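User: I'm preparing a small set of examples for a lab meeting where we compare how different chains pack in three dimensions. I only have the primary sequence for this one, and I'd like the structure in C-alpha cell form so I can line it up with the others. Please keep the answer compact; I'll paste it straight into my notes.
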Amino acid sequence: MVSTVIGLVLLGAMVVVLVVAFAAVHRVNRLNRASPLSQSQATVVDKREKVSSSGLRFGALTATTYYATFELPSGLRLEMVVTGPAFGQLVVGDTGQLTRQGTWFRGFERQLLR
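Assistant: Understood. Below is the C-alpha cell output for the 114-residue chain.
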C-alpha cells in the first residue's frame, strides 16, 4: 500500500516536470519564431559536439548535437546549436556574417581574405 502511494507520487512529480519542461521549450520556440532575422559580424571562437545515447543495451540509438561559439564585435559570445554540415564548414578563427533568429542559428557566411 505504502509503495503504491510512493509510486503514484513519484509518477505525478514526473508528469509535472515533463509538462513544465514541454511548456518552457514551447515558449522558447514561439519566441524564436516571432524574432526577426538578425545579422552581425562574428568570429568563430569554439566548436564542440555532444553525443548522447538512448542507454539501451541492444540497438542503442545515439544522437550528436553540434555547437559553435561566436564572438560579436561587442565581446558578447553566443553558443548556438548548428547543423552537422554547418559544423563541418566552420573553422575556429573564421570571421564573417552570422545570421540568427532569436537563439536559433540560421547561417554563417565566411568573410574571405583578399
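A couple of notes for your slides: The two ends are 76 Å apart (CA to CA). The CA atoms of residues 21 and 27 lie 10 Å apart.

User: Perfect, thanks.
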